[in-house]
Structure formats: C-alpha cells, structure tokens
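Cross-check.
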Amino acid sequence: MREKLLERGSDSLADYELLEMLLFFAMPKGDTKPLAKALINRFGSFANVLSAPQQALLDTRGLGVHSVSAIKLVEAAALRLARAEVLEQPVLNTWDKLIAYLTAAMAREKTELFRILFLDSRNRLIADEAQARGTVNHTPVYPREVVKRALELHATAIILVHNHPSGDPSPSRADIEMTRMVKEAASVLSVTLHDHLIIGNGRWLSFRAEGLL
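Predicted model, tokenized:
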C-alpha cells in the first residue's frame, strides 16, 4: 500500500486502506485491516472515523491511546490545512474554502457549537474562536460578550457560525432573534456583522443570502 500511495496517489486507496495504514503506523504489530473495516462500518465513513468523539473511539474494541491519538492527529492536521486556505486572504474572496473548512470543523458535531470569525479592516481572519457549546438544539449566546471580544481583538467585522446537529440548516426563531441582537449591539460600536452561517450535514445556510440580515 505504501508503494501504491507514493506512486499512484491517495485516490488509488480505498477509505479502509487509508485507515488501515494509519492504524498500522500507531500499532505496527498485527493485521489492522479488520479493525479499519470495522471502524468504517461503525462510523459510516473515513471522515466520520476521524471526527468521531474521542471517548467513542477509546471505547471501541481494538483501539487504544496510541491509535486514537493518531486518528485525532490526522483530524487536527486536516482542519489546520483547511483553515490555512482562508488565512492571509480576504475571507469574502475565499468563500468556498471557508465553507469547506467550517463544514469539516462543525458538520459532524453532535451538539451545537457556536463560533465567531473576527476580521480586520481588509476582511482577513484575525481569529476563529469557539464561544460556546450547547445541547443538540440550543447554544446560549450573549451579544455583549461577542462585541466585547471583537473590541479586544480590534476586529472591524465578524461572521457568526453555528451548526445544527439535525443536519437541517434552517434557522429557528431563536437564531434569527439572536442574530438581530448581535447585529444591533455590534453596529453601535462600528463592528459589521457580515453574515451568520448555519452548518448542517452537507448543507449550509447564509443569513445574508437568505435576506435575513
């Protein structure tokens, strides 16, 4: 498989083969193919294995600290690579890459996660921060804290982002009301709310594109 990977590229390997190789590097004794296939079957895909909760992986027979660490290391590397695609460039000019990064980071979360992208005057990313984690259908957000953090970072614009674990990115009334409150609080201090993105499972929604801003 090493020769196949190096000579023909990663597309020549099936998902279970990629996972098989990864597990072999973490636990080089024994055949890792059955475990790789079992993990794909349990979690549904290679991507789902990488993003599975750490405890769920540790509870899986055949996996230990070393193999779970290897899986989480690859996930972290993938997210940092995706994030690097949106750094040092105006975020609004790299929209597709931004959505790809946010989808990778949030679409498979089992509870709601609220994060904020803080931008400078040229719309470049200053910081990408997770602000709160909630339940399966609600995350508490405090407009005053959002604006306070923007001022601390000297950000002139923000993009709100949260996920819907249900997979449906349709905004709730609470989402719409919270967005309105953040926009009003931010505008008082000359901080622009560019958008509020909701990430679903393979789908996403832009408040601005939907005319909700």
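The beta strands are 113-119, 125-133, 157-163, 192-199, 204-206. The chain is about 45% helix and 15% strand. Passed to J.P. for a second look.
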